[in-house]
Amino acid sequence: MTERPALGSPLVFRWRKWDGSPHWEHDCVYLGADRWGDWVGQRDGWRSARPGVDGVAEGDNVTLVPPSGEFAATFNATHPRIEIYIDLGWDIRWEAGAPTGIDMDLDVVRARDGRGIYIDDRDEFAEHRVQFGYPLDIASRVEQVALDLERAVTEESAPFDGPTAAHWLAQLDRLAGR
Questions:
Q1: What is the distance of C-alpha 102 from the center of its chain?
Q2: Domain total of the chain
Q3: CATH code at 137?
Q4: Is the bond leading into 10 cis (omega within 30 degrees of zero)?
Q5: Maximum Cα interatomic distance, the chain, rounded to a whole number of Å
Q6: Contact 73/160 with Cβ under 8 angstroms?
Q7: What pLDDT digit, counting tens, does each position of 6-15 carry?
Q8: Are 42 and 63 a contacting pair, CB within 8 Å?
Q9: For residue 3, is it within any domain?
């Protein structure tokens, strides 16, 4: 297991696409770990950018990086539209003291704006599956994990239960106060 940074240490969570091109980068702090994996946090207004888009977080959020390396689940405290946003990924791991991974396009979302719980970006996944040549076994696994996560979010099973994210949002307050 790669060594983790000290609690409260700043880091950048870096995503790339299958072909190695850069994707999202999120300024975060390391919050700790529990039975589901490692947690990082981001304060309202902290930088989130990708090529062509330089933005900031809309509200505090915490992200679970499980040891499976198959997804990163973000729980938003006050985002106006999204409560949970799960990026399906591949090879998400710790490297040089920060998480990094390949964005596999599919996302599981629990919206606050009436759209409910759904799997997003199926069209992008289908397009990139051909464009980047996703191996069939990996593409099938990503699709299955998306379905499993959609079910877990719908059932509100831990860590998608509310209290788990609330605990880590409180840790964000302790380690990266305003």
A1: 11
A2: 1
A3: 2.40.380.10
A4: no
A5: 46
A6: yes
A7: 999 999 999 9
A8: yes
A9: no
